[in-house]
Amino acid sequence: MKKNRSSSLWKAGAFVVFLVAIVIVAFTVEIPSADQVHAWAGSTGALGAAIFVVAYAILTLTPAPKAVISIAAGLAWGLWVGTLLVLVGAVSGAALSFWIGRMLGRDAVEQYTGGRVRAVDEMLQKRGLLSVIALRLIPLIPFTVINYAAGLTAVRVRDYMLGTAVGIIPGTMAFVAVGAYGAELNSGFFIALGALGVLTIGGGIVATRLRKKDAAAAASASSTPNDAVPAGVVPADVVPADDLAAEKS
């Protein structure tokens, strides 16, 4: 047991060091501009697309802003190819971040938080897919934070990956569309932005309903009387009517 606790502490410490390192990288490494990425992509051809996916996945590990790179993808490759490249890079980076969080931090969460996260774990095991999709559809929640935080929970890998792939599509298309159509402001640009707004609102509604269902379930469980008497069993302090009549006579 002590060995397991010691191992969990070492992993948690390594996880904290890793998080500090990626924050430092995010603030010290300069992100190229959309024009720079466009010029570079034009000079590298198909190889540039593969390098872009790998670089985007690595960037996803850090809290650095990724919107500029998504816009650059639209500028360099257009809406559909740019969206595909960003999606592959983002999902790959999200999977790696999730794995790091699960391998280094999950044991410590289980051992040192006890029942305080049990309700969250149970909810994510039951409705993990919908929960991940709802979180991904809300652009105000940082993408990288969700990646690592999900790894610390009991959400299933399948639900996390599928929810991420589906949930980031509208936001990805919106940013890529800015690069692809930003100068023209044609119908494709406004359709993408409209889709982002609608699906973001939808994600907020889904998340709100999930919270209400969980709160109602918790309230129902807590309101169940502990001293409920099974059917057919007479409580000890209740005197049968026949006995009471005999006592009076």
The largest β sheet comes out as: none
- In the predicted model, the low-confidence regions spanning at least 5 consecutive residues are none
Apparent shape = flat
Could you give the distance between the termini? 68 Å
Q: How many distinct helices?
A: 10
| Helix and strand sequence | HHHHHHHHHH
Helix content: over 70%
Give the strand tally. Answer: 0
Number of domains: 1
Q: What integer is the average pLDDT?
A: 79
The radius of gyration computed from the alpha-carbon positions, rounded to a whole number of angstroms, is 26 Å
Supply the helix-strand structural class. Answer: mainly alpha
Beta percentage is: under 5%
Features:
flat, 0% strand, mainly alpha, 10 helices, 249 residues
